[in-house]
Amino acid sequence: MKYAKIIGTGSYLPERIMTxxxxxxxxxxxDEWIFSRTGIKERHVAAENQTTSDMIVEASKKAIEDAxxxxxxxxxxxxxxxxxxxxxxxxxxxxxxxxxxxxxxxFDIGAAxxxxxxxxxxxxxxxxxxxxxxxxxxxxxxxxxALNWKDRNTCVLFGDGAGVAILTATENKNEGILSTxxxxxxxxxxxxxxxxxxSAMPASKETVEKNLxxxxxxxxxxxxxxVLRMQExxxxxxxxxxxxxEDVDLFIPHQANxxxxxxxxxxxxxxxxxxxxxxxxxxxxxxxxxxxxxDQARKxxxxxxxxxxxxxxxxxxxxxxxxxxxx
Length: 327
Ligand code: UT7
Hints:
Layout: E1 3-12, E2 16-19, H1 20-24, H2 31-38, E3 42-45, H3 52-67, E4 76-80, H4 91-99, E5 106-109, H5 115-129, E6 134-142, H6 152-155, E7 160-170, E8 176-184, E9 192-193, H7 205-209, E10 216-217, H8 219-240, E11 250-253, H9 258-268, H10 279-282, H11 289-299, E12 308-315, E13 319-326
Parallel strand pairs: 4-5, 4-6, 11-12
Antiparallel strand pairs: 1-7, 2-3, 6-7, 8-13, 9-10, 12-13
Helix pairs in contact: 3-4, 8-9
């Protein structure tokens, strides 16, 4: 029987930083409003010519080095993103090309903020079933290129970046991914979406003029569902692994809003000091959030061998996921 474990991580955040004060000059907002409502102080912004795959390539090089493998050991690439380089081919395919990896299966997952956890869940199944042995899973976004920079309800909330994890097969059932829990509810899809650019509303002069190729969100409604689903994802994943909140050494939640994180840890009984929080400096990077946080946590020595790490996310779709890992 095979199991999947993470053997390397890497992340990349673009050089340019935009603070709340910078947004004050563009829309009617304030550092006080943004920080008190969300916990965000600043976010990274991709360069004009920088694509989602460019950032994944930077994160991948670090993850491959960290995993101490040859890039040709990788036999599957999965990318979680809702801001792909193009509608097609997949961003995963551009990553394969740019890394110079042999022709292996590569595909994207469009599960928004849950994209990386969906990717880990698929990679786990592929490894367990023997279809793949070593998988590169990325979560990455250039959200700032998909925002309406005049809409204060959404523009201040997001940032850009990429994170990567390399998974490989192990015979040891006491390490690696112990449980996966995921779900989706398409009935609520319209509460957070990009309306134009697909078959429902192909690109036209009008869709561009009306800013319909950008994030549209009913923030307040999304918030209520986010709190409930994040709690569900975290607690169900722990339950499936035979644990409770007290057993968690580090919790890495999706970082959409500090208030959502606080409500989740209260319910799941996970102490704040065992929760990884970077929203202040990164904002919400959708699918990029958790793999970047995971890499930062490892680099800051917040994860030791044998630690139980819980990941939980919620995003557009709606989608959600929880994963429990033993490092
Ligand atoms: O990534 C996964 C999915 N996304 C999420 O989980 C995000 C979930 N939602 C949220 O995090 C919060 O709902 C927001 C941060 C988006 C908004 O916070 P809120 O406390 O729910 O505020 P609200 O939407 O109820 O708006 C309150 C007020 C409104 O003014 P009025 O109508 O009360 O006069 C907004 O117009 O705040 C106003 N507002 C702002 N004011 C200053 C909204 N955005 C801003 C802004 N600066 N940037």
